[in-house]
Fold this sequence. Notes:
By secondary structure, the protein is α+β, with helices and mostly antiparallel strands. It has helices at 129-140, 232-242, 250-269, 286-290; strands at 7-11, 23-29, 32-38, 41-47, 68-72, 101-103, 106-108, 149-155, 167-173, 179-183, 191-196, 199-203, 207-210, 273-276, 281-282.
Amino acid sequence: xxxxxxxxxxxxxxxxxxxxxxxxxxxxxxxxxxxxxxxxxxxxxxxxxxxxxxxxxxxxxxxxxxxxxxxxxxxxxxxxxxxxxxxxxxxxxxxxxxxxxxxxxxxxxxxxxxxxxxxxxxxxxxxxxxxxxxxxxxxxxxxxxxxxxxxxxxxxxxxxxxxxxxxxxxxxxxxxxxxxxxxxxxxxxxxxxxxxxxxxxxxxxxxxxxxxxxxxxxxxxxxxxxxxxxxxxxxxxxxxxxxxxxxxxxxxxxxxxxxxxxxxxxxxxxxxxxxxxxxxxxxxxxxxxxxxxxxxxxxxxx
Length: 302
């Protein structure tokens, strides 16, 4: 595919998505819980639904519970936490252990589940955009730079404690005319899709293409070959010995992060922003420039 015909469609999702990681989340609705897995091995389970009292567990402190992590697994798959322990049935994996919770003048014991019950009332999704932007800019050959224009729109919560954006569409334009279009997963599937004149290639924990024959094309010795690394940790240790640059050095990680933050600012301001990726400043936009940092509390300064 010719570079001047290339468009990148980028879709954010719940997890960091790269071919260098294999972290996934499995959702179950009966019982209601999320299980995080790394390379198909369970890491931990978060119980967001009510976990009933099992048979044979009795007493004042044997109370149904929610909003806690159990089981938590060790490196060899061993379970590190307990739930409904016979001598302390109110203990439950990893949880908020506040012994005194006051609401409307009444004090209850959340730790021992006496008179108060903790459960999630709303799930807000924080997308892992930085990691996919890393891949998208890598494919553009812009991993050490950034966009020159950013335009985005989004919907934010109208109430509650959080201000995480709910739905969005952001368009990043680069100096070479190529674009990244970033949306929430309600509009497009999570992953990175490269669209060119001969078809498209999609990646998320694997690779797809249309037509499938694109995956059988051979990359010639004089064509672009990307850095190959099957694992971040192994790559870091290998580079310590070889003194080579890692697959994601600080500059590239910074550029992916700053691009994601620029998209957030465009949605927050609701208008197109013009960005100088070399100077890392906005063009003649004092309002946007002020949002690049927060006031620091004394005596801290940079």
